[in-house]
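Ligand-bound model needed. guanosine-5'-monophosphate.
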Amino acid sequence: MSEQDTTLFGKIIRREIPADIVFENDELIAFRDIAPSAPVHVLFVPKTPIASLDAATPDHAALLGRLMIAAAEYARSEGFAEDGYRVVMNCGRDAGQTVFQVHLHLLAGAPLGGFGARHAH
Ligand code: 5GP
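Prediction:
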């Protein structure tokens, strides 16, 4: 079993546990965070198993770029790009990463506070 198969997000990708999926293509999935830290809190996840940004290699550069662009396109399509939004990727213990499959948090829908006002767990 690959590493991704054991993570929560692997289970969401395989529809083994439910999620409010807002976007999906062959290589990415996006769904609402179960404990939102902002009015809009969506997680963008590559389907390729990568435990964290620390485990990413140059081979993943294009995929991770497309992950960012997918979040930006979603923000535009939902109409909150102009007001602004934040993307966050937690890496490792000190950042509070809890799910070891690379994912990008997209936070929007209200003023988010200054840098460091990261989402709480
Ligand atoms: P991390 O802390 O690893 O950066 O982010 C993991 C995120 O996954 C957290 O914001 C947490 O609320 C979210 N999360 C945890 N369990 C579930 C779940 O079962 N479903 C969904 N949709 N999100 C979850």
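The CA atoms of residues 62 and 68 lie 10 Å apart.
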